[in-house]
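ARCHIVE CARD
SHELF: 3
SLOT: left
DATA:
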Amino acid sequence: MSGHVSPSPASASEGNRLMMTLGIVAKHAVIVLILALFLLPLAWLLLTAFKPYSELFTTPPTVLPVNGTLVNFSEGWAIGGGKGIGDSLIVSSISTALCLILGFPAAYALARRFPPHGQMSFTILSLRMLPPIVPVIGFYILFQELSLFDTYTGLVIVYTFMNLPLVIWLLAEFIRQIPKTYEEAARIDGAPWYRLFWDVLLPLSAPGILTAGILAMIFAWNEFLFALVLTGEKVITLPKALASFFLFQQPNWGQLGAIGIVAITPLLIVSYYMQRSLIRSFSVELGGR
């Protein structure tokens, strides 16, 4: 009769620790792989921005610039990148400010007067789901009649219309997490409605306002279809300016890389410093479900 030798507790514990270590290593390896997939295009864009034209088409291709240069930044800025960044900054900043100014009172009414998952919330959010190709022809005809074609005002109106539903929905979900007792205490103390908004609701809603503002700014900054159809030669946003690099001249990838880096750097910096507010706001969104 042969005896069965069971593993000792020490060896079993060592095996468990080994499996846990392998699991942690595998998890970190997957995170590094996903991060590399996201950062590789940005790294390649950055390296291309510093390559002279002669190195862009060499065989075999060079990864690091052999003779780094800043000419791509100056030339890309001069041939349209500078105007594109300036116009995008004007239009996206004003439209974002309007979205927040108009969206906060509407979000407060939606949060306090309507149920969280009612028809009104869905209706407002569904306006943001509308494909841009659907209203663009109507906007084009309307803007021609109202002399808003190829103007900053027209594009600001469109971007405000495009992002306002999302801003209202985000802020409403955040305001719902603010206890009504704060407002009741302010009213008992005799605070008028404008002091209630300024001293109570705005400070408590600051993370949600920052989140909604960042998202509205990014969407307006990256929008292409409305800018292409509703503007001509006076207003040229950055996506339209980058597209013109292909349409009217042989594409210079170094200039495209340089302007692309200049364009995304401010958004990356703002998103990095506002990441706590972003995480807190999305945590509120998910916690309300």
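SLOT: right
DATA:
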Amino acid sequence: MRKQFLILVCVCITSISWSQVHEIGMSFGGVNYIGDVGKTTYLSPNAFGGGIFYKYNLNPRVALRGGISYYSIEADDADATNGIRKNRGYSFNNAINELAIGVEFNFFEYNIASTTKTYTPYILLELAGIMYKSPKTDLGNGQFAYQNKKAISIPFGIGFKSKLTQRIALAIESKVSYTFKDDLDYTSKDFPSLNFGGNSNDWYVFTGISLVYTFGRPACFAEFR
């Protein structure tokens, strides 16, 4: 009996080591920019965003995650409460392509195969590379030629996920990204008409829902905890 028990434990450990839980999913929702143009509200989605992602669950509390996302951002000084911005009357729209990797921490143990541990709030922290448009050449009459520019951002946020079916879960997430750059709104000292001040870097915020498909659960994951 003891020998059989040890064999079972070894099989379980091997299964967990080589066949951890995987998740793939897609997210969609709203995006807002925070910077030198328009409103300064931190959570006010006014443009579309979405992406696809993959998660590797190290255990019921921690998952590694990576994803590719597209975010549209826009702002208009006409929506600002600041009188100076309203009088300036500037507006813009841009697009951000993001490639991110990071980690997700669950507040509770999460196991979609379980009948009791099927939901949890979580927090996340990522490191991302982004690409967006930046002005390159002044063509005159307020027109510019643009180029692709690359930068680093640090997304972090909170979410809540819950099981829908045996394989599918639903998540609600809000993620704030700090960019180290001040030109998502095309601010530039190289062009007088775009040099409208600002001394802080830009942010963008994604708030949305995700559908997640889970696969690859090891046989002993739920039983030995």
